Structures are given as structure tokens and as C-alpha cells.
Amino acid sequence: MVQEEERFQDMSLTRLVTALIMAGLLAAALPAFADDSAEQRKLVEKYLSAYVRKEHSALRPQLTTKTEHLFGPYLLEGFPTLQQPKVDDNQALVEFKVVSKDKALPSRGGVLCYRDNGVWKVRQVLFYDQVPRIFNLPSRSVTAQDRAQEGKVGDLVRNFLKAWQRNDEQAQAALWYRWPHRPDKDMKGLSVNDLAVTVLPRSDSTAFARYRVKLTYRWGPLAYSMNIRGGFYLVEEGGAWKVNGNVMVFDF
Length: 252
Description:
- Helix content is about 30%, strand content about 35%.
- It is of the alpha+beta class.
- Strands 1, 2, 3, 4, 5, 6, 7, 8 and 9 form a 9-stranded mixed β-sheet that branches.
- It has helices at about 1-50, 55-60, 145, 150-165, 170-175; strands spanning about 80, 85-90, 90-95, 110-115, 120-130, 190-200, 205-220, 220-235, 240-250.
- The model is unreliable at about 1-35 (pLDDT under 50).
- The chain has 5 helices and 9 strands.
- The chain starts with a helix and ends with a strand.
- The protein folds into 2 domains: about 35-65 and about 185-250, Nuclear Transport Factor 2, Chain: A (Roll); about 75-180, no CATH class.
- The longest helix is centred in the N-terminal third of the chain and has 51 residues, at about 1-50.
């Protein structure tokens, strides 16, 4: 009976020591995780505020700079089914339907293009269920001149997606429109409010940030608000988290 009691005490002591060790390891890990999460959330807030106001000089320091991080790994299963290009002056959108490798992404999206000095280039790859009107994406080819550009836009998008699929980063960079280097626009009346962020780790060096936010535009005594949801990838680069602003999700 005494031996049983001593064995029980030994087991209790072992469990207590194990629990204390695990608690110590958890306590040591928590500050690093909290700091990482805080950095990511602050980055998302700063980036969104600058992005919606088109303050490109403010958002540039938050973006990835390495060529391999411009669009990241190919996110589509196979080659997508492309729809007819929609051209509106210097903007164009080629929509697609596809199965995404990342299940967090919708199966619908589009490649947004921009004509820079007469040359069409890819601006961003978008995934969406519904795109908020505030982004004003092309909905159709407006004029005969626009329709005449559909062939060039379609060829550009196919070449870009093939380069992305074969992981040809240099070819992607050559076809990319450097939109973050555009001049700032005066969007001071637009504010970002009620931001909620959820960061989902994807690997040791990447994460996906989901956000919900209210955009409010004030013009004198008038105000208009819109709630939107979206997301983008974060990449650890040079010891800090950065935004991959060329792949974006809306209203998932």
C-alpha cells in the first residue's frame, strides 16, 4: 500500500514537471507569435489605407521587391478557361474560371491589364465572387477602338499565365505594369474604418491575410460608406513581412 502511494506521488510529480516544462515552452513561444501577428496586422492596416487612397509612395515600402515574389507560386490547377477581354480605354480585364490550388481562393477571377505608353501589360491577378464597384473594373469593351485591342490583351494574358505556370519569373516581370510607381492621387476624403484582420499561415515564410473593412468617402457634408471583404498574401522578405499586392481577393 505504501509502495502504491509512493508510485502515485512519483507519477504526479512527473506530470507536474512535464506540465511546467510545457508551460514554459508555450510562454517562450507566445511573445514571438504575438509580435509576428501584431506586425502582420499593422502591415495590413497601413497597406489598405494607402491602397484605397492611391497613395503609392506610402504603400511602396510595404510591398515585396524580389522578382520571385511579384506574383509568387502559380496558384491555378492547369490552364484557366479565359473569357473575351473587356477593354475600357487604357484598362482591360480578362476573366477566368478555374480550380485554385489554394482552397481559400474563389474559382472565378480575372487578369487586370493596363496600357502604358501604348503597350499593354499585366497589372494584377484578381480572385473574386463579386468585385466592389469602388474598384471600377472594366465591364465591357466600350468602343470600336476598345474592341480592336481585345486581341492584343488576350495574347498578353495567355503569355503571362504561361510564364507564371512555368515559373518564369523574369518573363512575368517583363510583362508586369509597375503600378506601385504611379504618382499619388488626392483621395484624402476616403477613410478606412472598422478593420478586422485574420492572418492564416501558409508556410514558414508566407501567410494569407483576410480583412473586412468599411470604406467611407466624405465630400463636404456628404458621406458614403461601403463594407468590403478581401485578402492578399504576405511574404517574409529580408526579416520583415511584406505584401504581395499583385494577387488580390475580393468579397470571398
